[in-house]
Amino acid sequence: MSPARRLRARMAETGLVHIMAAHSPLSAILAEEAGFDGLWASGFELAALYGLADMSLISMTQHLDMLRSIAGRTTLPIVADIDTGYGNAINVIHAIGEYERAGASAVVIEDKTFPKVTSLVAGGRQELLRIEEFQGKLEAAAATRRNPDFLVIARTEALIAGLGETEALRRALAYTKAGADMILIHSKKQDASEIESFSRAWTGAVPLVVVPNAYPDLDARRVRALGNIRMMIYGNYGIRAAATCMQETFRRIIADGGVQNVHKDILPVEEIFRLQRTEGIKAAEARFLR
Ligand code: SPV
Ligand code: MG
User: Which residue out of 23, 24, 42, 209 has the highest number of ligand 1 atoms within 8 Å of its CB and is therefore the one to mutate?
Assistant: First the structure.
């Protein structure tokens, strides 16, 4: 069964899948071990890993290289964040071919203009495409995929752009008509009221996806109660968790004048050896090196 088929099957079976942001193969391995259903090849996380803003500065090649490395180290389905699709519908055709070959099971394409501005930043310039133009991009994506289980998820940024629920619903319905398999609805409000209201008003035929990072109180119990959300994406928690630990540890090393205190508080190197699958390499050495 392809990872894309597994992702669809898991959604059907559990009613809600939990997709963890991964910015590296190591973070993907940790997410798989923790029990997530899939991975989010997040644009924000990869940009942050490079020390850059999430504003279309990372190239498709950089994102694909990381996605391939992630796909090589885990068995989880990967939902690729392809931002605006790198241009118009022609760029989307090229991108879908590349992402499917690289091992993605789904893409999320957002209805912003290229270059985009990250969604949650205060005062960010948020410009949306004409609906017809974005429909063309979605149709191009759906027509290009080879595996019919590969998911094309349309993300509307209408709430992020301050255009209100009516416009968000209008766009989401138009994107469903264009062939989107799911609709990702995002908000920058610090409570989930916009998302819950949108979900209650949603009459479209496809399920919804949410990214509860500005509104962390929207947990799985509340999501399930809404009834039409099938995917929760934990976007930015991987890089924030990693940065939290590194920031604290690095500061302590400077303050302590050495690693004598932090040494016992972080993972032992043996655990890193395990995550690197070093035992398998040792076994191969014993077997093959003569
Ligand atoms: C990402 O993780 O890249 C996302 C989610 O798109 S957000 O940063 O909240 O827009
Ligand atoms: Mg993103």
Answer: 42
Determine if ligand 1 sits within 6 Å of the CB of residue 79: no
**Same domain flag for 29 and 82:** yes
Q: Catalytic: 149? A: no
- Ramachandran bin of 155, using left for φ above 0, alpha for ψ from -120 to 50, beta for the remaining angles: beta
The per-residue pLDDT for 26 is 98
Q: Which atom, in ligand 1's list, is nearest to the CA of 235?
A: 2
Q: In this structure, are 232 and 247 located in the same domain?
A: no
Helix axes 60-73, 89-102, angle to 10 degrees: 20
pLDDT at 144: 98
86 with 111, same domain?
yes
pLDDT at 113: 97
How many domains are there within the chain? Answer: 2
Residue nearest to atom 10 of ligand 1 (CA): 119
Query: What does the pLDDT look like over 100-150, one tens digit per residue?
Result: 999 999 999 999 999 999 999 999 999 999 999 999 999 999 999 999 999
Domain that holds residue 276: 243-288
Quick one: 210 and 250 in the same domain?
Answer: no
Does 81 contact ligand 1 (Cβ within 6 A)?
Answer: yes
Query: Residue 118 to residues 38, 49, 157, 159: CA-CA distances in angstroms?
Result: 23, 15, 11, 14
Are both 247 and 228 inside the same structural domain?
no
Ligand 1 near 211 CB (within 6 A)? yes
Q: Residue 112 gets which letter from DSSP?
A: B
Mutation choice for ligand 1 from 112, 118, 156, 194, CB with most ligand atoms inside 8 A: 118
**Global pTM value:** 0.98
Tokens of 266: 């972080």
